[in-house]
Amino acid sequence: MAVDPSxxxxxxxxxxxxxxxxxxxxQALPGEDIIYLGDxxxxxxxxxxxxxxxxxxxxxxxxxVRRGIKALVVACNTASxxxxxxxxxxxxxxxxxxxxxxxxxxxxxxxxxxxxxxxxVKIGVLGTAGTVRSGAYPxxxxxxxxxxxxxxxxxxxxxxxVEEGWLDGDVPELAVARYVEPLIAQGxxxxxxxxxxxxxxxxxxxxxxxxxxxxxVPVVDSAQATADALLRYVDxxxxxxxxxxxxxxxxxxxxxxxxxxxxxxxxRFLSERLPAATQIDL
Amino acid sequence: MAVDPSxxxxxxxxxxxxxxxxxxxxQALPGEDIIYLGDxxxxxxxxxxxxxxxxxxxxxxxxxVRRGIKALVVACNTASxxxxxxxxxxxxxxxxxxxxxxxxxxxxxxxxxxxxxxxxVKIGVLGTAGTVRSGAYPxxxxxxxxxxxxxxxxxxxxxxxVEEGWLDGDVPELAVARYVEPLIAQGxxxxxxxxxxxxxxxxxxxxxxxxxxxxxVPVVDSAQATADALLRYVDxxxxxxxxxxxxxxxxxxxxxxxxxxxxxxxxRFLSERLPAATQIDL
Lengths: 282, 282
Prior knowledge:
The structure is a homodimer of 282-residue chains.
Chain A lengths: L8 E5 L5 H10 L5 E5 L11 H18 L3 E4 L2 H14 L4 E3 L1 H16 L7 E6 L1 H6 L1 H9 L5 E5 L3 H7 L5 H16 L2 E7 L7 H12 L5 E3 H15 L14 E5 L6 H8 L7 E3 L3
Parallel strand pairs in A: 1-2, 1-3, 2-9, 3-4, 5-6, 5-7, 7-8, 9-10
């Protein structure tokens, strides 16, 4: 796997939620060019069968590889959960998903929380139906620690709440409580945001979880954990762009559909000026 | 357009919500065979651009036409709103959408409601972003009555609420109130369910609208109105299956993806025994 460090990082997601990963990457690796592909014509992946998600993920990866990238980041939790092994087997470049870094960060947070209480701390994962059904987070945690129990709960309503921009108020509070309450009741004291949309609801999730648990509940953002993991990887493998960048990094945005809501929704996830998006066919 | 009355009716929808139309058709035309295609690999259409929805609708229609149908019912409001003219121009068979029958039923309900109050009765349409942005309902109403004002509001959270099975309780009540309140405040006294998912929330919508308006608000179900319109059409055009059916009617179910939640979600929309679904590629 000899890769050219001057190439951009490739990032794909089922839609625009993966721009939260781009945002985290931009802060961790500010000099790196990024090509982002959002499969907006077929979003969401979280409700589809694993076979279909694998097929869609292969298609997205192929587009980015053809354009030339030095590493592939699967920013979608569902695609990471069901397609990462296939992509790693098929592609001759580093492939990073969001599940393993998220699980790693959750284990750290759980071990830290365990120091302050006697009962075993459990990790709770909020995700799409596809991510939860795949069992990817429990498997990833088990590879790091066999003592930590993981409870995953599908929270499908949180994605449309974010897309609708309902980030606080009665409806998100009640919906989050409905998903989080059973997890806390079963001993969960660390929550993983297992979907790229959820970081926008982080304040509500933290508030609701703390109220139900009677104490702060650490919340792990897989997007942030992935950016941190990629930063370490780029350093270790000497993949950083060199010579030192003399121009601002480029962000290229590809989408498979350009709905009227595109700019409003994209701006929710990416806290920087949005580049013009190019529509492609898959 | 010479069609063979022994052929089935073809129905397509972006996903499984169109099974509410199949349910209404089965009651209005109990002897007719039906082939239903749910584009579950690309659902939802309501957030996508018109160009993409037209392309998807053409693909769905082509599959059904190739199998042999005597009429095509576009059960998806978004697809009806943006693709019905294209499909009618391209296909050599009767094409019925859900928007025109829904608008017709809404006009009748509004004229009835107008007899009981002095202020002008307005029609409110709840629909997906794509349906609302298309302006299809206001256009369809204007063709029937130029005096009736139509206010359409996107209500995107109602689809995931139905898919999640949250059909009553705090969250749907509050979400529906948030969508319906501004419509009632602007004089809406008839509501159209402009998405095949919404009939499952009809009790909540009726209750919330009546509470806000201080009086019952008639709620028009486009699925039901479409079944009634097709019944009239089949009668007028002598399209009914003949000789009189001696075997139970057949319902064939095609989908483009078979997620694990398929049976649970499909059963919500179709109140009869679910036939086995065949997965096809589009």
